[in-house]
Design brief:
With about 500 residues, the chain is an alpha+beta fold. It has helices spanning about 40, 50-60, 65-70, 75-80, 85-90, 120-130, 170-180, 190-195, 200-210, 220-230, 235-260, 290-320, 320-330, 335-355, 365-380, 410-430, 430-440, 460-480; strands spanning about 35, 100-110, 135-140, 145-150, 155, 165-170, 185-190, 265-270, 285-290, 385, 445-450, 450-455, 485-494. It folds into 4 domains: about 30-185, no CATH class; about 195-290, Winged helix-like DNA-binding domain superfamily/Winged helix DNA-binding domain (Arc Repressor Mutant, subunit A), CATH 1.10.10; about 300-380, no CATH class; about 385-494, GMP Synthetase, Chain A, domain 3. The chain is built from 18 helices and 13 strands.
């Protein structure tokens, strides 16, 4: 996680914590992640949808401080120097703030995802945010548990739209936003942007804190009501489930699976101790599902780590850097990274031999030329057949390009057959699993030639995952439409 930060001044604190690409830019998928303490996800509140989104905007503004605590083990107290208290004093004077007890966040209005036409509504939400209670669990010196209830913040907002908003907090509350005492979590900003239901947002934060577990610990209905501050609303169980939990289930499923913008969704498992399965359950367990988008983010994270290792190897072994290294990394894909790893080790041995023999003058230039030549040679392949399908027997023959399969325009009959293939898959798998794997035309009929069917899939990684789970079923429904004598080839676009 990095060495413990010992900086005490603003100028010595790191500006960015997250790893960047070789060109210095933050990876696109990383820009969407928001980090926060788990305590913030578990905080009792009854904030509206717009107030929760405003809270996320505050959290985003504090990301440098939060990430430095999480990844560099920096002291939360030291991160308060990142907040522009001095700028606030220069603008408004000293009477509005006590710098010994308070800090200020300066947030552009654009961060609240609100246009000029809705600014009056945003002003009302910010005004209400300033009056809402903030519940902080604390312990007395003798270990007894208490709840400290305080106002969340003070808001200094402009009359016009083209100005910044200032959020003033007590230091002890700001520290709760950046403390890692209870652990940390991450969530996708776009899920919050797309959510139309405040309970869906609350449940998303909750399951995101359990990201690496298949299910949460069972909770009583009373606990869930208390956490959502709905003790006296929706008195009947069916009403509570349908208006709160089921609505949250459906919304997160829509965002994650149907729209492909979210990483997680959940289903509710009702636990009955007496076996009746009628009425209010004794406990609730939230089963966490990772969408195809979530799987892609996870895979991308692992891929970026491997790509970073390639970058370090090229720099250490060949002295490559700057534009040369950037050009190489731009051509590294999930399909060629394994081959590239092997090639670089072999090239390193050959280059060291050439250096000793005096056959090359500038190592970095010769190595760059060799690597780029090899990458371009791999890239000329129009298609690459997926070679790995764990535990399945399916003929997969190498194809240099799709044209070699004598593909033609798909007939209406073939298109209808392919439609029935998807209908059969959906009927056998259920809507949730079907959308998880095949939404967005993830598996497409590429062409038909004589007794050969060519099917396109997004990537090798995708096919390895879907093949393990549903390879036999896919083969079965395809053979049902075209007969058992046909050969089925799976390719990825090169």
């Amino acid at each position: 996680m990095g060495q413990k930060g010992d900086s005490m001044s603003k100028k010595n604190l790191p500006k960015k914590v997250a790893k960047v690409d070789s060109d210095g830019s933050l990876p696109e998928e990383e820009q969407s992640w928001v980090y926060q303490p788990i305590m913030m996800a578990m905080m009792r509140n009854k904030y509206s949808k717009s107030q929760l989104k405003s809270l996320v905007a505050i959290m985003i503004q504090m990301q440098d401080a939060i990430k430095d605590v999480i990844f560099n083990n920096a002291r939360p107290e030291d991160q308060l120097a990142l907040f522009p208290t001095e700028d606030f004093i220069m603008k408004f004077g000293e009477e509005l703030i006590d710098p010994n007890k308070e800090v200020v966040l300066k947030i552009p209005l654009s961060k609240f995802k609100c246009d000029k036409r809705r600014y009056s509504k945003l002003k009302d939400d910010l005004d209400q945010l300033a009056t809402l209670p903030f519940y902080i669990p604390i312990k007395s010196l003798d270990g007894e548990e208490y709840t400290h209830v305080s106002g969340l913040c003070e808001v200094i907002r402009p009359k016009s739209y083209d100005r910044d908003v200032y959020i003033k907090m007590k230091k002890e509350i700001a520290l709760r936003f950046i403390s890692n005492d209870g652990g940390s979590m991450k969530f996708l900003e776009q899920v919050v942007d797309e959510a139309n239901h405040n309970y869906a947002m609350r449940m998303y934060f909750f399951i995101a804190s359990w990201r690496n577990h298949p299910a949460t610990c069972p909770r009583t209905v009373k606990w869930v009501r208390n956490w959502l501050m709905l003790e006296n609303e929706y008195p009947r169980w069916n009403m509570f489930y349908n208006c709160v939990l089921k609505k949250a289930e459906e919304e997160l499923y829509r965002i994650a699976v149907v729209e492909g913008k979210g990483d997680l969704y959940f289903t509710t498992k009702k636990i009955y101790d007496n076996g009746s399965e009628v009425g209010e359950p004794d406990r609730l367990q939230f089963i966490i599902h990772r969408s195809q988008t979530g799987e892609r983010y996870d895979n991308n994270s692992a891929f970026r780590s491997r790509k970073q290792m390639i970058s370090e190897f090229c720099h250490t072994s060949f002295g490559l850097k700057g534009a040369d290294l950037t050009a190489i990394l731009k051509m590294v894909t999930e399909e060629n990274i394994d081959k590239l790893n092997t090639y670089l080790v072999e090239l390193d041995m050959e280059e060291q031999k050439r250096l000793k023999e005096g056959k090359i003058d500038k190592l970095h230039r010769h190595a760059f030329t060799c690597i780029m030549h090899q990458l371009k040679e791999w890239a000329t392949e129009d298609a690459e057949v997926v070679e790995s399908w764990v535990g399945k027997e399916l003929p997969m023959q190498p194809e240099k390009n799709h044209a070699s399969a004598k593909e033609s325009e798909l007939s209406s009959d073939d298109q209808q057959r392919w439609g029935r293939v998807h209908q059969s898959l959906r009927a056998a798998m259920g809507d949730v699993e079907y959308h998880r794997w095949f939404s967005g035309n993830a598996m497409q009929l590429v062409g038909i030639s004589e007794q050969q069917i060519t099917i396109g899939v997004p990537s090798r990684t995708y096919w390895e995952m879907v093949g393990q789970e549903y390879g036999a079923l896919i083969k079965e429904v395809i053979e049902k439409e075209w007969g058992s004598g046909c050969e089925i080839h799976f390719t990825t676009k090169g």
